[in-house]
Amino acid sequence: MSELRVAVLGVGKMGAFHVDSLSRRVRGARVSVVNDVDTDRAEQVAAPLDARVETDPTAAIAATDVDAVVLASPGFAHEKQVLACLEANKPVLCEKPLTMDEASAHAIVQAEAELGRRLVQVGFMRRYDREYAALRDLIVAGDLGSPLMMHCVHRNPAVPDSFTSEMAMADSVVHEVDCTRFLLGEEIVAVTALKPGATSSAPSGTSDPMLVLFETESGRLVDVESFVRTGVAYEVRTEVVGENGMATIGLDQNLLLRREGRWGGRIAPDFVERFGAAYDAQMQAFVDAAGTGTVGGPSAWDGYAAVAVCAAGVEAVSTGRRVEIRLGDRPEATR
Ligand SMILES: NC(=O)c1ccc[n+]([C@@H]2O[C@H](COP(=O)([O-])OP(=O)(O)OC[C@H]3O[C@@H](n4cnc5c(N)ncnc54)[C@H](O)[C@@H]3O)[C@@H](O)[C@H]2O)c1
């Protein structure tokens, strides 16, 4: 088959990475159209690629020189743009979050189900990280016995002062939500956010760190340390505690250096370095499936469930209460 022609909407930090991935590292695709509300930015990105700029996002999606779409616009723009992709019958890789609220995310699940074929993949790239994939294989093979608990760590070195506790839930902890559902294979039914004393670098009123607790359908517990101003590096770790053993990923042990009487390693400074290979693997899988007119990987339902858990998480942060999650109907076609 000829190369898949992809429109990329939103070419900020994430979109620029996806453009680079499609142009230089992924096989079988090229960027044909670039769209961004910042037209200068779109021109800059498109120029070296021989791609054209389309200023209207809906026209970019519907264009005859576009076979598939990558959305890396801000979350508030996703709902309209994903619906336009469904309308145009085009496969779409949509960055998280799928949409900004549960009702609109559920409407996308239903709209896709009515089409009768999967067209929406949500950008939960950790599922394509080799450590997460290995951990999932271990669990599915039964090597740990039944998983009982999970401990997760999500640390960033720094964030702007404007990054609130609610944003930490919606932007960072959202990945732990998807990992929990991916690794344990069940839904999260309740979320609680505990707030220890804040680090002195957090603006007044911001809870950082937080300890977030998920309860799953079968009663498993998952704790997540969310700490986004550590001043250290980007650290994402997961330990699954099972009946027959424990397994940990994210130990940054790629290289252990022994030199001048000391030993140690290096921690990735940011998510692009830590998960760069996973983003590329995610994109390759999207391109391969989109070439056959469909998608695999994290689904619209996965995107919807994450939106619902994060909405509950945001409520848990602001009220200090345990918040239960009641998901809407799951269309048979999405199972
Ligand atoms: N999967 C991950 O790990 C990960 C990491 C970072 C960001 N993201 C997600 O990627 C998306 C983009 O994040 P970012 O960090 O690149 O943000 P960013 O602000 O760097 O880039 C967003 C770009 O979208 C453009 N834009 C704004 N409104 C638009 C619209 N209506 N249509 C098209 N373009 C529009 C902006 O001009 C900007 O260039 C967000 O949904 C974010 O949550 C995911």
What does this structure look like?
The strands form three sheets. The protein has a seven-stranded mixed sheet with strand order 12-11-7-10-9-8-15, covered by helices on one side. Helix 5 (102-115) links the parallel strand 5 (92-94) and strand 6 (120-122). The relative contact order is 0.17. The chain has helices at residues 13-25, 39-46, 57-62, 78-87, 102-115, 130-140, 165-184, 271-290, 300-319; strands at residues 4-9, 29-35, 52-53, 68-71, 92-94, 120-122, 147-155, 188-194, 210-216, 221-227, 235-242, 246-249, 257-259, 262-264, 323-324. The longest helix has 20 residues, at 165-184. It is globular. It has nine helices and 15 strands. The chain folds into two domains: 4-126 and 277-298, NAD(P)-binding Rossmann-like Domain (Rossmann fold, 3-Layer(aba) Sandwich), CATH 3.40.50; 130-269 and 307-334, Dihydrodipicolinate Reductase, domain 2 (2-Layer Sandwich). Helix 6 (130-140) packs across helix 7 (165-184). The protein is an alpha/beta fold and 335 residues long. The structure holds nicotinamide-adenine-dinucleotide. Nicotinamide-adenine-dinucleotide binds next to helix 1. Its EC number is 1.1.1.18. Residues 136-325 form the Gfo/Idh/MocA-like oxidoreductase C-terminal domain.
